[in-house]
Amino acid sequence: MPQQLHYAVAIVGAGSAGLSVAARLLRASAALHGSVVIIDPQAKHYYQPLWTLVGGGVMRKEVTERDQQSLIPKGADWLQEAVAHFRPDENRIVTSTGTVIRYDVLVVAAGIQVDWERIKGLKECIGREGVCSNYDYRYVDSTWRSIREFRGGTAIFTQPNTPIKCGGAPQKIMYLADDAFRRSGIRGKTDIIFASGNASIFAVPKYAAALDKVVERKGITAKYKRNLVEIDSAKREAVFEHVDSKERETLRYDMIHVVPPMSAPSFIRDSPLAGPGGWAEVDKHTMRHVRFANVFALGDCSNLPTSKTGAAIRKQAPVAARNVLNVLGGQPLDASYDGYTSCPLVTGYNRLILAEFDYDLTPRETFPFDQSKERYSMYVLKKDLLPKLYWHGMLKGRM
Ligand SMILES: Cc1cc2nc3c(=O)[nH]c(=O)nc-3n(C[C@H](O)[C@H](O)[C@H](O)COP(=O)(O)OP(=O)(O)OC[C@H]3O[C@@H](n4cnc5c(N)ncnc54)[C@H](O)[C@@H]3O)c2cc1C
C-alpha cells in the first residue's frame, strides 16, 4: 500500500533553490519544524559553479560533492524519491513509487534537464577520446584530461541556443583551456573555435563588449548561431546546424567541450504547472504560480526570465520563502524579486569579469569599481569565497 503523507510545505528538489528555501522557512518559523518535506531522489548534492575550475584542473571534483543528508535543514524531512506527477487541483504530488504527499503550499525547485541524447552520437563518446563536458559530475574530469592531453590541432567549445544553467560557463572553460595551452607551449599550433547557437558572446552589452575583446586578444574564432547536432567520434567530426538557414557544417576536432541543449524537466513540462516552453509558470516578481495560488517555483526549472544561476537563486530564495509564509499566514504577498542574476566570467587562471544584472539586462554591480574589467580579486572571490558562502550561508538560510 503506497504511503500517504501530509505536510504544510512540500519542496520538490534539494538543489540550491530547494535547500535555500527550506532553510529560510525553518529559520523564520519554529511552528514549521516537522511540517516541511523535501523530496529528491539524489543522495549527493553538488556545488556546480566550481565545475568550471574542476574542468580547468584547478581543483578536484570531490570538493564539490556533499552527502544530501548532511545538508537537509534541521526540522525538515527528506523523502528520497522522485516526484512523478503534480495534482495541483487536489494539493497533491505523487512520486514514481506511488507515495502521495498532500501539502498546504508547494515549492517546485527541480532544476533543469540536460538533454544529452539530443546530440546524435554524443552518448556513445562523452567523457572519452577528447569529447568532454563540465555539465555533469560524471564527465567533468574528462575536461581536464582532454585539455592536459591535448597536443595541438583544433579545440572546439560549444553552446546551444536553448536556455542553459550558467550562460557563461561554456566560454569560461574555453578561456582556461587557452591559458593552459599557452602554458604548455602548444597554443601556436592550436585553433580554438567557440561555436555558439546564440547571436553574440553575452546578452548584456557592457559585458559582451569586454568579452569580445578577450576573444580577440586570445585569437579565438567565434562562430555564432551554430548548434551542435551530431558528433562522429570515429572520424573526430562535429556537425553544426545554422539556427536560421539550417545549413549544416562539419568541423574536425582534436578536442571538443560540449554543452548539450537543456529543457524544462519532463515531469514539469507534462504537468498542469507548465507554461510556455514547459517551465513552471510563475509571476516573475512573487514567484507564485499564475494559476495555483499555493504553488511557488524558483531556480532553473522556473520560467523566471533571467539567466539561470545559483546567484539568481540567492536573491530568489528569500522572496519565495517570505511569500510562502505569507500564504500560510493568510497574508497578501509582500516580497518581490527584480531578476538579479550574476555570472562570474572566468577569463583565465587568476582573471575574472563579474557580470551582475537584472531583468532589464541593466548592470547591478556590487563593488565600487568597473566589474567588466578582468580582475584577480574577483577570481579569488569565485574560487575561495563564494563556495564558503554557499555551503555555510546560502544553504543554511543565512544569506
Ligand atoms: C558547469 C556549471 C557552471 C556553473 N557556474 C555557475 C556560476 O559560476 N555561478 C552561478 O551562480 N551558477 C552557476 N551554475 C548554475 C547553478 O549551479 C544552477 O543554476 C543552480 O544549481 C540551480 O539550482 P536549482 O536548485 O534550480 O537546481 P539544482 O541545484 O540543479 O537542483 C535540482 C534538484 O532537483 C532534483 N530533482 C530533479 N528531478 C526531480 C524529481 N523528479 N523529483 C524530485 N527532485 C528532483 C535534483 O535531483 C536536484 O537535486 C553553473 C552550473 C554548471 C553546470
TrEMBL record:
Gene3D superfamilies: FAD/NAD(P)-binding domain. The lineage of its organism: Bacteria, Bacillati, Bacillota, Bacilli, Bacillales. Its cofactor is FAD. Pfam families: Pyr_redox_2. Coiled coil: none annotated. The keyword Flavoprotein applies. Keywords: FAD, Flavoprotein, Oxidoreductase, Quinone, Transit peptide. This is Sulfide:quinone oxidoreductase. GO terms for biological process: sulfide oxidation, using sulfide:quinone oxidoreductase. Residues 8-125 form the FAD/NAD(P)-binding domain. GO terms for molecular function: FAD binding; quinone binding; sulfide:quinone oxidoreductase activity. It comes from the Bacteria.
